[in-house]
Amino acid sequence: MLPDALLEILRCPKSKQPFVYFPRGEANDNDAAGFLLCPASGLRYRVEAGVPVLLVEEATAVAPKDIEALIARARVLGLSVPT
Fold this sequence. Notes:
Layout: H1 4-9, E1 20-22, E2 35-38, E3 43-48, E4 51-52, E5 60-61, H2 64-77
């Protein structure tokens, strides 16, 4: 789990925009499946042992329709979604 203070300052290295943080993965059932999603760049960054891996070359590209679905999922889970 990443601290709120860290999440407030973290930005996508590609777009410089804030993240949507899924601390327990998309299904919200696995503490080891956490990731950061940048809707602006369409990149998904993994979190390993509580450390975000913010390397653009290691991020996973996410299709626009999947970004929309992930943002909708984040809202259902009550996660913070940047505007």
